[in-house]
Amino acid sequence: MIDFKMLIGGDERIAAGEGWIDSVNPFTGKVWARVPRGQERDAIAAVEAAAAAMENPAWANITASQRGALLRKVGDLILDNAERLADLEVQDNGKLKAEMLGQLRYLPQHYYYYGGLADKIEGAVIPSDKAGMFTHTVYEPLGVVVAITPWNSPLLLTTWKLAPALAAGNAVVIKPSEHASVSMIEFAKLFLAAGFPPGVVNVVTGYGNECGAALVEHPKVAKIAFTGGDAGGKAVYQAAAKTLKHVTLELGGKSPNIVCEDADISQAVKGAVSGIFAATGQTCMAGSRLLVHEARHDEFVAALRAFVANAKMGDPMALDTQIGPVATLPQYEKVLDYVAIATAEGATLAHGGKPYRGSGCENGWFVEPTILTDVTNSMRVAREEIFGPVLSIIRFKDDDEAIAIANDTPYGLAAGVWTNDLTRAFRYTKALKAGTVWVNAYRVVSYAVPFGGFKQSGIGRENGQEMIKEYLQTKSVYINLEKDVPNPFVLR
Fold first, then answer.
1. Which of the four, 82, 132, 186, 432, has the lowest number of CB atoms within 10 Å?
2. To which H or E segment does residue 364 belong?
3. In this structure, are 297 and 435 located in the same domain?
4. Would residue 74 count as lying in a domain?
5. pLDDT tens, position by position, 318-375
6. Does 423 lie in the same domain as 299?
7. In which domain, by residue range, is 238 found?
8. Quick one: which of 440, 429, 466, 436 has its CA closest to 451?
9. Residue 139, SS3?
10. What's the CA gap between 250 and 230, in Å, rounded?
11. Same-domain pairing of 198 and 220
12. Active-site pick, 99, 250, 385, 470
C-alpha cells in the first residue's frame, strides 16, 4: 500500500478531513495505493494557491519566452520519467503499458509545441476610423483554470488542457478522477522540478460532490476545462454559468465507423478494432457504431470475428497484451448490463459478451471483446455511450442511408470512413456532423490538430495553434494622440 498526497501551493498534503480513497488495480482486483479524499476546504486552498501564483512576480512577470522554456523543460522531464509514469497509470486504470508508454513518450511534444507558441501570442495594431486614435489589442491570461479530467487517459487529456493554459500564463488546479489520481499526483511534481513557481500547478483529489463542485463554483476560477460524460459536462456547464466562467467541454460520443462497399476489408477490420477494442473501448472517440454496407456485411463480420478471436487478453503490464481489463468495477458491471440489454432488444451476440476468466485474469475486470449484429439505430446500444469493448454493427444499403444513420445521434465527436473512392471520401467528410473525421484510419490524434465535438459531444476545442486562445482574453486599447478632447457628452 502506497499513500500519495495532493499538491497544493507547492506542498504535498493529505485531505483536510484526513480521509482516503483506495485505488484498486483493475488487473488484480486489489487495493495497491491510496489518495487523499479531498474536501471543500482543500478545493478552496488550491484555488487560493493558484490565485496567489497569478499575483506572484515569479509567474506574473516572467516573459513569454521564459514560460516557453519552462514548458520545454517539463517535456524533457516527462521523457525522463515516461516509464515510471506509465507504470503508475497502468496500475491505476488498467490501460495497456504498450499504449501508455507510447503516450508518455509522445506527451513531451505537446509541451514543446506550446512552449514554442508561448512567445507568439501576438495582438494587432488596428487602423481606426477615429481620428487621432491609436488602437491595438493584447491577449492576457484568464487567471485560475480548473482542469477536470477522466480516468481513461488522465495524463494525456490533462495535457490537452494544461500545456496551452500554462503557455498562456494561467495557473491551474487539476481535479483528476477519483478512480485514477495517482499518476496525476506524480506528474504534477515535474512542474515544480522544472522550475514553475509553487501554486502554478496544483492537484486536488477526491469525489466530485465533495471537492469538485467547490472548484467549479469558486468565484476566483475563471475557466473550467472538463473531459467526461455528457451528464457531468452539463452539470459543470450549469454550475459555471452562475458566475459566467469560460468553459471547454470535451464529452462523450457514439461515433460511427463506416465501411463502404468499395472498402479494403482487411484494413477496415483493423480500423474497427482500433475504434472499439483498443483501450478496451474506454475512449470518448470509440467507434462503437460500425456501419457496414449490406453487400459486404457477412464477409466483414466473419473477418472481424477471426481477427478478434486471436486478440491476446491479459496483464496490461505485458507489452504483448492487446486487450486489458475494464478500469472500474461499476464500469465492468455496466458493460455486461448493456450486452444483456442489447440481446433483449433483438441484437444478435456474434462474439464475446461474457466476463473473461483466462489464465492470470481470474481476479480482474475483464470483458470479452463483444460484437453485436442485427442492431438498429434505435436500440439503446446504438444510442447510449457504453464505454467498453462492445461493438454494434448496423447494415446500410447506400451512402445516403449511411450518412443519415451516422448523423442520427445526439453526439458528434468523431467518425470514420473506409473507402477507396476519393469522391466518396470527400462527400462523407462534408456530410458527417462530427468534430473529427478519419478516412481509412481511426483513433489518430495530434497536438497540432484541433479536437472536440459537435452537438452534445462538447463545446470548444483542444490541441492546435488556435486553441491557446481558449485560455486567453482580448484587451482592446485606445490611445488618444490628440491634445484636445472633444465634446464629452457624445459617444465618439
1. 132
2. none
3. yes
4. yes
5. 999 999 999 999 999 999 999 999 999 999 999 999 999 999 999 999 999 999 999 9
6. yes
7. 2-251+457-476
8. 436
9. strand
10. 9
11. yes
12. 250
Q: How many residues does the chain have?
A: 492
Domain count within the chain: 2
Same domain, 291 and 171: no
Closest by CA to 284, choosing from 235, 212, 244, 229, is: 229
- Say what angle helices 97-106 and 82-93 make with each other, to 10 degrees: 140
DSSP 308: H
Q: What is the CATH number of the domain that holds 464?
A: 3.40.605.10
Q: What's residue 254's pLDDT?
A: 98
pLDDT of residue 209: 94
Residues in the chain predicted with pLDDT less than 70, given as ranges, are: none
Extract the C-alpha cell encoding 400. Answer: 445516403
Neighbouring CB atoms inside 10 A of 474's CB total 11
Contacts 24+ apart (CB under 8 A), 211-215: 211/38, 211/39, 211/40, 211/42, 211/43, 211/175, 212/43, 212/148, 212/175, 213/40, 213/239, 214/40, 214/43, 214/44, 215/43, 215/46, 215/47, 215/146, 215/148, 215/173, 215/175
Residue 462 DSSP label: B
**Which runs of consecutive H residues, i.e. helices, occur in 94-212?**
97-106, 108-117, 154-167, 182-194
Active site residue 250: yes
Condensed to tens digits (0 to 9), the pLDDT of residues 393-415 reads: 999 999 999 999 999 999 999 99
- Tell me if 449 is assigned to some domain: no
